[in-house]
Design brief:
Layout (H helix, E strand, L loop, with lengths): L1 H23 L15 H21 L8 H17 L5 E7 L2 E10 L4 E11 L9 H18 L6 E8 L13 H11 L3 E9 L28 E6 L3 H14 L4 E6 L11 H6 L4 E5 L21 H19 L8
Parallel strand pairs: 3-4, 3-5, 5-8, 6-7
Antiparallel strand pairs: 1-2, 2-4, 6-8
Helix pairs in contact: 2-4, 2-8, 4-8, 6-8
Length: 336
């Protein structure tokens, strides 16, 4: 019995070590300490993000098929117009749901040396019922627009797409009518080689207070208790992508960053548009402030623009510029 107990303990320890090594351990170290002072470019980016969040969450407000389909269309028109202003041709992938015409919007930079390899950066622009969705997910949409502007006119080795997805929120969440799954299915039907997809999901809320960050058990034993970091989350099949994104972000941006390639059964791991790409066999990860595990106003009417920390969100977007540059094979904007 003693030998059996010892063997069980050894096995459990071995499983824990392997799990930490393969799922939790990430390259480099997360940034700690006071954030560097914001320069003029960062302040300008912060103002840019604020303008987009204000237009979508304040001027347009709640937007979804059920209660405000006209606002959903206004949001799509605004996003499309911003893409055009940035110099892109916009493709609308239209489909009908609940007697409402909906669309995903995408723009593309065709790759030069490896155009068959596709990198997708996306965010959903609809909101839950009854909320303006400043953080969920206008913050993500604003980040996609900011990145698209910064890559406009630049050459990339691989094909780079920026996509705004519709119908991520219930009742279409994780159903075949979810906009990102409609999009991912089309990618698979076209036999497209999507080598990386990043979903920018609820990225605007941060807190330095101990205990401000929650986790599904037992992850709280392994990650910080302060909700002052950006998280890169994927499933175990997307481990290499998660590690690459974390390594690049940590290496280029002085801002706390945590990552995990975790079993998709853990609550929250698949709670955004990256999940849709997993269904089609593509590597995908979520960039997030962890939403309901940190944000007190998740899916609440109080999810308003005053809750967004635009300085920290701008730092995240600046870090993502480097991430996208590496994924797509482009020079970082500040080196051009």
């Amino acid at each position: 019995m003693l030998w059996g107990l010892c063997a069980t303990i050894v096995l459990m320890v071995a499983i824990a070590v392997v799990g930490w090594w393969t799922m939790i351990r990430m390259p480099a170290e997360s940034y700690h300490g006071e954030l560097p002072a914001a320069d003029n470019r960062l302040k300008s980016l912060s103002d840019e993000l604020r303008r987009d969040v204000a237009h979508l969450s304040v001027e347009i407000g709640e937007r979804n098929v059920y209660s405000r389909p006209e606002a959903l269309q206004q949001a799509a028109d605004y996003i499309g117009a911003e893409f055009v202003t940035a110099g892109y041709d916009v493709r609308r992938q239209e489909y009908r749901v609940s007697d409402c015409d909906c669309c995903n919007l995408d723009v593309e930079i065709h790759g030069t040396s490896e155009p068959e390899k596709i990198v997708i950066i996306g965010a959903h622009y609809d909101t839950a019922l009854g909320v303006a969705g400043a953080n969920d997910n206008t913050s993500g949409v604003a980040a996609v627009l900011a990145l698209a502007r910064r890559f406009s006119g630049r050459k990339t080795d691989r094909t780079l797409r920026f996509v705004a997805f519709v119908n991520e929120e219930p009742p279409y969440f994780q159903t075949r009518r979810m906009g990102s799954w409609v999009y991912a299915r089309e990618c698979r039907q076209r036999d497209e080689n999507v080598v990386a997809m990043l979903s920018l999901e609820t990225i605007g809320y941060y807190s330095d207070l101990p205990g401000s960050q929650k986790y599904p058990a037992p992850l709280g034993l392994l990650y910080p208790s302060e909700g002052n970091f950006i998280a890169i989350v994927g499933n175990t099949g997307s481990r290499e992508l998660v590690r690459q994104v974390v390594a690049t972000f940590r290496g280029r941006e002085p801002f706390p960053c945590e990552g995990g390639a975790l079993p998709s059964a853990i609550p929250g791991v698949g709670f955004s548009d990256h999940w849709s790409f997993w269904q089609e066999g593509y590597p995908a990860a979520m960039v997030t402030d962890t939403a309901m595990f940190r944000y007190p106003y998740y899916h609440e009417p109080e999810d308003t623009i005053d809750k967004i920390d635009f300085d920290r969100t701008a730092r995240v977007v600046r870090g993502l510029d480097h991430v996208v540059s590496e994924l797509a094979g482009a020079q970082p904007a500040n080196e051009n």
